[in-house]
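Progress note, sequence design subtask.
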């Protein structure tokens, strides 16, 4: 696991979250999952109905994404800093677990695990380009930014090596790597996630 040094909120910070839209059933499920981070990080996540909020959540068709940590403050209050593109009242609970924990990890400052400076993943780049063009409609520059570009070690605080079980790790089909390395669909905080987030947000 790794977090951006300058984007974490600080231990005990009151992190206000406001839904900009969405059905109450979906909002309730998102809230229930997001609050799991508070079991392991000293962050006071508070869901507010109006007023300013560090995290503004939308449910607009398309991708699911989030600004990383304090970068959300650069976004206008009326605009989302986080989006869930496919969650509905009947979406499976394990999909809520996977995507909500991941995006709220970003909101706390976490980066994608496959972009960890010590990632060491041996990608088959052409297959990765083809895969993300087919599945996400991404062009090569966007793949470079979101998949191949590792973060500089001086910008992050992280574990000594990447954690394939981290909630922040993308699923990786074996066909996308030169050595058959693969990662499934992680749907819970790994042991390393739980331990390391506590060092950045100590109780």
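Output:
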């Amino acid at each position: 696991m790794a977090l951006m040094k300058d984007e974490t909120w600080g231990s005990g910070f009151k992190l206000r979250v406001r839904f900009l839209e969405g059905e109450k059933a979906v909002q309730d499920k998102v809230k229930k999952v997001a609050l799991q981070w508070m079991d392991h990080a000293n962050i006071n996540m508070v869901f507010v109905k109006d007023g300013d909020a560090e995290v503004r959540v939308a449910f607009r068709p398309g991708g699911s994404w989030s600004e990383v940590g304090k970068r959300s403050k650069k976004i206008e209050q009326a605009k989302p800093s986080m989006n869930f593109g496919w969650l509905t009242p009947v979406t499976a609970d394990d999909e809520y677990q996977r995507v909500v924990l991941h995006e709220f990890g970003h909101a706390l400052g976490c980066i994608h695990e496959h972009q960890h400076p010590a990632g060491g993943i041996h990608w088959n780049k052409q297959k990765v380009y083809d895969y993300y063009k087919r599945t996400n409609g991404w062009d090569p520059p966007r793949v470079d930014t979101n998949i191949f570009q590792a973060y500089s070690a001086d910008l992050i605080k992280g574990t000594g090596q990447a954690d394939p079980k981290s909630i922040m790790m993308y699923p990786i089909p074996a066909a996308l790597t030169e050595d058959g390395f693969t990662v499934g669909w992680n749907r819970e905080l790994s042991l390393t996630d739980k331990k390391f987030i506590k060092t950045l947000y100590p109780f």
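The radius of gyration is 17 Å. Work on this subtask will continue into the next period as scheduled.
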